[in-house]
Specification:
Elements lengths: L3 E6 L3 H12 L4 E8 L7 E4 L2 E4 L1 E2 L10 E4 L4 H11 L3 E4 L28 E3 L3 H17 L1 E9 L7 H15 L31 H14 L5 E5 L9 E9 L5 H9 L4 E3 L11 H4 L5 E8 L6 E8 L3 H17 L4
Parallel strand pairs: 1-2, 1-6, 2-5, 6-7, 7-8, 9-10, 12-13
Antiparallel strand pairs: 3-4, 9-11, 11-14, 13-14
The structure holds ligand 3JN.
Ligand 3JN binds next to loops.
């Protein structure tokens, strides 16, 4: 079997998940290089029972690398082009190239064909977008979605390891009656929810909200789909949840939608309200599936449905989707 030289760029929460997922899915790795900022150089990570030392990324790091997986952050802007010039295909987790018309934005369950026109860089969508489009695509194919209204309940790990520490420390401080301090989030996150992820834009939306709006249209390849989003941070460590309302052109009953979703790729339906069975973020940690439940008719419009969608934001929302794109490249002989 052909094997490939890989580089993972970044050793934060997503970078570590990338290394785990490559191992678990037995990706055909010849050699793995782990690259990061100067601050993280020298750290050690485990891959397939071996200890690898993190190296500082520089423009020459990508010589001989076939596939470079960028875990997000500033490294993409700084080094993705150098990686492509060095001969690697880049799969990038940041928002840097997502809306570039020259760069495919891919979720393998939705638009696998788009990897075929890559010119060196393939973008991995935002975590909240990924889990939503996995659930929307089979419904769009069945009944054509006209409009989507989504509210998210996003875990703190989406904002990195320091955000997890902040939630844990604040929780402890509140429980022990101490004054809390804030660094990552603009307000207290423990025992609270914040309707604010990423920066505010001139239109009053946050950048996270507009990522969901714009990326969904690009991935689904249908500019007629209207999306509006409210993205909210909740005091959960891992697992993003989404309340999604859709309006479709054709009739689609909740029962039929449940049946379609149950046989769609990458999805598990958990929807038995008699037993209080519905997807929960605590049950999805470490899994690669998009879980869908609370599927019900929206009686306020002619053809409408409500869904509850949950997935591990570090896995399907980032690392797993990235490795699946790499698997597509290998399967289609594009690397
Ligand atoms: O906050 C979350 O739950 C997801 C955050 C994603 C994120 C964080 C910092 C920068 C992104 C992203 O993937 O869109 C970016 C970015 O690259 O813009």
């Amino acid at each position: 079997m052909k094997t490939y030289n890989l580089a993972v760029v970044g050793v934060g929460a997503v970078g570590k998940a990338l290394i785990d997922v490559l191992d678990e899915r037995d990706f055909p790795v010849k050699e793995l290089k782990v690259l990061a900022t100067k601050r993280s150089a020298g750290k050690q990570v485990q891959f397939k029972g071996k200890t690898l030392t993190v190296e500082e990324t520089n423009p020459g790091s990508f010589e001989g690398v076939d596939i470079a997986l960028f875990a997000g952050g500033g490294a993409s802007r700084e080094f993705a082009k150098a990686a492509v010039d060095g001969g690697a295909v880049v799969i990038d987790n940041s928002s840097c190239f997502r809306m570039d018309p020259e760069v495919p934005l891919v979720v393998p369950e939705v638009n696998p064909q788009d990897v075929e026109w890559h010119k060196g860089i393939i973008a991995n969508p935002n975590c909240s977008t990924i889990q939503m489009v996995v659930a929307l695509k089979p419904l769009h194919d069945a009944a054509r979605i006209k409009r989507v209204v989504v509210s998210t309940y996003q875990a703190v790990s989406g904002a990195g390891n320091d955000a997890i520490t902040e939630l844990l420390e604040q929780t402890n401080d509140v429980l022990t009656g101490r004054k809390i301090s804030t660094k990552v989030f603009p307000h207290q996150i423990a025992f609270n929810v914040l309707p604010h992820i990423d920066v505010f834009l001139e239109n009053g939306y946050t950048r996270e909200e507009m990522k969901m709006v714009n990326e969904t249209v690009k991935i689904m390849g249908d500019e007629s789909i209207k999306v509006t989003a409210t993205t909210v941070r909740v005091p959960v460590i891992t697992g993003h949840s989404e309340a999604i309302n859709i309006e479709t052109e054709k009739e689609l009953s909740a029962e039929k939608a449940r049946e379609i979703l149950a046989s769609a790729p990458g999805i598990k339906v958990i929807d038995n309200i008699e037993n209080f069975d519905y997807p929960l973020p605590c049950d999805c940690v470490g899994l690669d599936t998009v879980f869908v439940g609370r599927i019900r008719d929206d009686y306020t419009v002619e053809n409408g449905l409500n869904l509850w969608v949950v997935s591990d934001n570090l896995r399907k929302g980032a690392a797993t989707n990235t490795v699946q794109i790499a698997e597509l490249l290998v399967a289609k002989n594009l690397v």
